[in-house]
Amino acid sequence: MNGEPMRRREFITLLGCTATWPLAAGAQQRPAMPVVGYLLTGTPEGTRDFVAGFRRGMGETGFVEGRNVAVEYRWSNNVPGRVTESAADLVQRRVAVISASSQDQATRLVGQNQDLSQAQRNQLRGLSLKSATRTVSEGDLVEFRGFLIGLPTRPGASGAESVNCRLSGASNSDFHIPMSLNADDSEFEGIVVEMIPQDRNPGWTTKKLKRAAREGRPVIVRGQLFYDNKHLVNDDPDEPLHGQPKRHSLWEIHPVTALLVCMTANKKCTQLSQFRKLEQIPVVFTHSLHV
């Protein structure tokens, strides 16, 4: 197959969760071995799974890196604007195809108030996990165990967002709740879980949420997996990752269908029975609910 023109249609169709842009043929002769450009917004260490999946996708189309196709990798290392510069460089190098993951596409759209197309959203299905036998898709019901962060000291960090016919007030707005694996993580290390106003349980109050966050209580959140590329860009030059999404992960649990709080005195819960549903917890709760 070496020396044959790249079968672009097959290559584009079977790559999986990537988007590709075949470049128009130019006057100059391309090398016998086609060259593919691959754009990634993160670091080489942080995007190993993306690269591995990309290579598997190429293999399924009959292309093996170094044998019948060459790959030019470009990492932005989370530097704003570097992806665009890298794309321009790949065009100048006359690669046959430029490819980028859906995560990279969404990151470039952050702060521009643009949504992903339906075709791009379709690529967020059947994504590979670290487990070799399981996949996950946008819209799946998931569970996340961790801690509520950012709420006690920065009550404005999760500002209200009217989603109910533009009516104002907390009863018509989402609750944006930063959450992470560790109680001392920053919002840049977490995700957002959102409680929508429609049919929201009246026992889900910001006062209870802030209390659980302030006391560093583990929580369990259940809900639907959603990919939101419309997160606002961090515009504070003194904060880390300036110019990146305020919450660095673009995946959310939205809407939340259940939130449970660890209620033991030592704030260590090893059994599900040691958690209580948020709506079942009194506004002024004590540690006596569980030993």
- Radius of gyration using CA atoms only: 23 Å
Count of helix runs: 6
Gap between N and C termini: 68 Å
Structure classification:
alpha+beta
Q: How does the overall form come out from the CA principal axes?
A: elongated
Number of strands: 13
How many structural domains? 2
Itemize the secondary structure elements and their pairings.
Blueprint: H1 8-14, E1 18-22, E2 35-40, H2 48-60, E3 70-75, H3 82-92, E4 97-101, H4 102-109, H5 118-122, E5 127-128, E6 135-136, E7 141-148, E8 161-162, E9 173-180, E10 191-195, H6 206-214, E11 218-227, E12 251-262, E13 275-277
Parallel strand pairs: 2-3, 2-4, 10-12
Antiparallel strand pairs: 1-4, 5-6, 7-9, 7-11, 8-9, 9-10, 11-12, 12-13
Structure description:
It is built from six helices and 13 strands. The protein is of the alpha+beta class. The chain folds into two domains: 8-126, no CATH class; 139-289, no CATH class. Strands 7-9-10-12-11 form a five-stranded mixed β-barrel. Strands 1-4-2-3 form a four-stranded mixed β-sheet. Strand 5 (127-128) and strand 6 form a beta hairpin. It is elongated and about 70 Å long. The termini are far apart.
Task: Summarize the entry for a quick read.
The protein has six helices and 13 strands.
